[in-house]
Design goal:
By secondary structure, the chain is of the alpha+beta class. It contains three helices and eight strands, in the order αααββββββββ. Strands 1-2-3-6-5 form a five-stranded antiparallel sheet. The chain has a three-stranded antiparallel sheet with strand order 4-7-8, with no helix packed on it. A hairpin with a 2-residue loop joins β5 and β6. α1 runs antiparallel to α2.
Length: about 220
């Protein structure tokens, strides 16, 4: 029980005793009221105690309500934190999904003329030859013996600023022959592609039947 209530109950008890004694003394003619002194009104004391009890209950309710509000706020903060964490996780998932490339994403095709040429940029797939920017070139036709041609003599690699890798390109035989080949076109990898590179362009000039073939890999396909 609240200390204030106990104290007031004690005061009420004393007051009742005093009132009782006063009544008995009046009956005996021993006690007179002097000056402006008034007897203690029991109803007033009871009303005061009731008000204090009511206020005490309200204070207790207010404290409990604050605790509940505090718990609710903590729960809301935790929910917001969880939502933020999930959002960040979703962002990371989306980012990782975008950065996952397959050979189809890295293949560029040119079917003009008599030669069908498909080229895959292997480095963003983690399959480049060490020290080289590696392009896997597949060529098919029905008119020319492709074994007679070194594609590196016709190829130039450029970035968006018009720069080329330092060093000579190489044409490395892998499989096939005659009308159908799959070989490697290699350029020295000396830091040619950087975070600022917007795209790279492979240009094949004056190769057999066409004056120009171009293959472009934009920034999102460079594996940066």
């Amino acid at each position: 029980m609240n200390k204030r209530i106990i104290l007031l109950l004690a005061i009420l008890t004393i007051a009742l005793v005093v009132v009782g004694c006063s009544s008995r003394n009046k009956d005996k003619g021993e006690v007179q009221v002097q000056g402006n002194e008034q007897p203690i009104n029991e109803n007033i004391i009871e009303n005061i105690i009731e008000n204090i009890i009511e206020n005490n209950n309200e204070n207790n309710f207010g404290a409990e309500e604050k605790q509940e509000i505090g718990k609710t706020e903590d729960a809301n903060i935790k929910k917001e934190t969880n939502v933020e964490q999930m959002t960040e996780q979703n962002k990371d998932t989306i980012k990782n999904t975008k950065s996952t490339l397959n050979s189809g994403d890295l293949e560029r095709y040119n079917g003009e003329g008599d030669i069908q040429m498909g080229i895959i940029f292997a480095n963003p797939l983690g399959q480049g030859k060490e020290g080289y920017l590696t392009f896997v070139v597949q060529m098919d036709n029905h008119s020319y013996n492709l074994d007679e041609y070194n594609l590196s003599k016709y190829a130039t690699l450029l970035d968006d600023k018009g720069n080329s890798p330092q060093g000579d390109a190489k044409w490395e035989v892998y499989s096939g022959g005659g009308h159908h080949v799959i070989n490697y076109l290699l350029f020295p990898d000396n830091g040619f592609i950087t975070a600022e590179t917007k795209y790279v362009k492979l240009i094949i000039k004056d190769f057999i039947d066409l004056p120009l073939r171009e293959f472009i890999w934009e920034k999102e396909f460079l594996g940066l």
